[in-house]
């Protein structure tokens, strides 16, 4: 197979991007764990309680009453734990009690203003008229606090809270300070949620699939949360085609390595007739077309696939929909003549006494 065809596989294309992924991503990988919620060991994160509103701890009594009410209202309205908003308010301006430049008027040295310290452009993009007075004023806590909640939500909160707080102020020391105050203000065992994008509700194997197909899918699901690296073949990272190849190999079946080779390997299946374990192909990336797809995922059911998407995707490897505009076709590797004998042998082994 020529280097040109390998470069186009899995829709990653640019050599410059590949260089960055292979050279700089490992250097920055520690920070990316927080930015993108990655998990070297895979696994899912339960996000069901990410937006829960904790009770007040004793330290919350130090918050001015009007600010505490605004934090709680914005938290409820936007699904952001109110104590995280309070942590930001404390670190930024002491809940508006600071007399520093830019808190009540003007701007500080960085151009930020108001009790939640917004840059003018950022506030304009996310501004909320919290008190419904027809004005959006970054110096008014009734507007600034719900705007902070909206901004956090835009950046991934509450499911990826550390990422969202980092986007608020690009410093991990800042993130840690905010969360330290949030813990002091929140009653009970408050724990911030930082999802890796792998939702625990996608853990179930398709009930209508054979034991063989379930084994294939189970392997692929176990790779969720690991990084996507173009050309990687596991076990710590995968690209789109190596993931599905390894999943089939884990069940004792050999399929080709690249997307280009996998497309003609299985039996073509009409859209709407796909079953768990089938492969779905996409016209993604330079050098690809409806006859030469460059990206692949594996059907798990209910319109979803397990797929290794890209190095900056959240998650890089996870469960996503395959019903998208660039979906071009489906194949069934288990129906390939090249696997017929092996599939029958493995199926017989699954029978009682087999």
Automatic annotation (TrEMBL):
Q: Is Hydrolase found in the keyword set?
A: yes
Taxonomy, superkingdom: Bacteria
Q: Cross-referenced Gene3D superfamilies, in alphabetical order?
A: 1.10.530.10, endopeptidase domain like (from Nostoc punctiforme)
Task: Give a single Pfam family match.
Answer: SLT_2
Residue span(s) of domain NlpC/P60: 210-334
Q: What does the entry give for GO biological process? A: proteolysis
Keywords, alphabetical: Hydrolase, Protease, Thiol protease
Name the Gene Ontology molecular function terms of this record: cysteine-type peptidase activity
PANTHER family, A to Z: NLP_P60 DOMAIN-CONTAINING PROTEIN-RELATED, PEPTIDOGLYCAN DL-ENDOPEPTIDASE CWLO
Q: Which family does it belong to?
A: Belongs to the peptidase C40 family.
UniProt name for this protein: Transglycosylase SLT domain-containing protein
Can you name the source organism?
A: Actinomadura montaniterrae
